[in-house]
């Protein structure tokens, strides 16, 4: 009986030693995904929620996120394999396709569905109307980029010819537009957040209108990758999209205050009250997409805006550069 008890104790000890090793053997492999974001903005709050709330980590993904500053630089990084996934305007995928790429860039998960810029006036304007811009110096965004095209689209809707009725400046690099305005260039400027709200708080400018509210739904910023990457890494693409979709639902169901608290550490130079203000502004105008699907109506609206701006190199069908199957699969789970 005593010998039997010793044998049982020995067996339990051996099992206890082996069990952790068995568990380790089943541990899921961690994949590193390199993301290049066109700018670092609260406009992309769901992406930062996926980081801060651990949604990427839950999927076994380690995210290497860097800001690539501008659509052209972001696309260059993607095409040269400097990054795996780009967060940038969908128009860039059309530009690449029109150049005859053998490995097209495919949009697979949408993050924002409106323009994210605001019209900022140097002087405080009471009862703003768009015709007040006529004759003014307007510091716009880079030619051929989504902000510039949407900006011109909205101006035309209000009866303003951007190239005839304004002194339009478009030769300032994307990363330097805010500094140029702060230094005295322009009567009006088209700015992203949180810069627009920071300028307003500091008395450097005043938000008078939202281009996002004026332009309607458009696939303004999407996650895209080369088709070869999606073909070779289907599980990674699914895990990535699953994390983004969970973050989108989290943003939709939480307050601006809760969102601001979650992503505060990723915007160390921005006061928490500004983060909250900006997030609330984007939430209220429906800028954050509620799911990752880039639908055909939005795609056609994008091309209409590009065509009107004279920047559409060729019309491209939705199913040529957009993959909704990944998002659809995730949403059915």
UniProtKB/TrEMBL annotation:
Keywords: Signal. It is found in: Periplasm. Gene3D superfamilies: Periplasmic binding protein-like II. Belongs to the bacterial solute-binding protein SsuA/TauA family. PANTHER family: ALIPHATIC SULFONATES-BINDING PROTEIN-RELATED (PTHR30024), TAURINE-BINDING PERIPLASMIC PROTEIN (PTHR30024:SF47). This is ABC transporter substrate-binding protein. It comes from Bacillus songklensis.
């Amino acid at each position: 009986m005593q010998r039997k008890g010793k044998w049982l104790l020995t067996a339990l000890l051996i099992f206890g030693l082996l069990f952790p090793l068995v568990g380790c053997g089943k541990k899921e492999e961690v994949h590193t995904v390199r993301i290049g974001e066109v700018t670092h903005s609260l406009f992309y709050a769901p992406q930062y929620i996926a980081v801060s709330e651990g949604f990427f980590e839950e999927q076994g993904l380690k995210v290497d996120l860097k800001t690539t500053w501008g659509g052209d630089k972001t696309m260059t990084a993607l095409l040269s394999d400097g990054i795996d996934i780009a967060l940038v305007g969908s128009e860039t995928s059309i530009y690449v396709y029109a150049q005859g790429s053998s490995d097209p860039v495919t949009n697979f998960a949408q993050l924002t569905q409106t323009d994210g810029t605001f019209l900022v006036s140097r002087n405080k304007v009471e009862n703003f109307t768009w015709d007040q811009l006529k004759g003014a110096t307007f510091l716009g965004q880079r030619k051929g980029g989504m902000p510039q095209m949407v900006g011109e689209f909205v101006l035309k809707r209000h009866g303003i010819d951007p190239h005839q009725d304004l002194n339009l400046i478009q030769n300032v690099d994307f990363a330097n537009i805010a500094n140029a305005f702060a230094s005295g260039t322009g009567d009006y400027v088209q700015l992203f957040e949180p810069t627009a709200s920071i300028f307003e708080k500091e008395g450097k400018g005043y938000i008078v209108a939202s281009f996002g509210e004026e332009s309607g739904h458009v696939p303004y910023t999407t996650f895209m990758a080369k088709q070869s990457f999606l073909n070779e890494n289907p599980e990674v693409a699914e895990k990535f999209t699953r994390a983004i979709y969970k973050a989108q639902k989290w943003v939709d169901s939480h307050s601006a205050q809760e969102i601001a608290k979650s992503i505060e550490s990723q915007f160390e130079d921005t006061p928490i009250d500004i983060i909250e203000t900006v997030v609330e502004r984007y939430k209220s105008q429906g800028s954050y997409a509620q799911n990752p699907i880039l639908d055909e109506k939005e795609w056609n609206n994008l091309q209409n805006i590009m065509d009107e701006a004279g920047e559409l190199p060729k019309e491209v069908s939705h199913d040529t550069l957009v993959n909704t199957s990944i998002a659809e699969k995730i949403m059915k789970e």
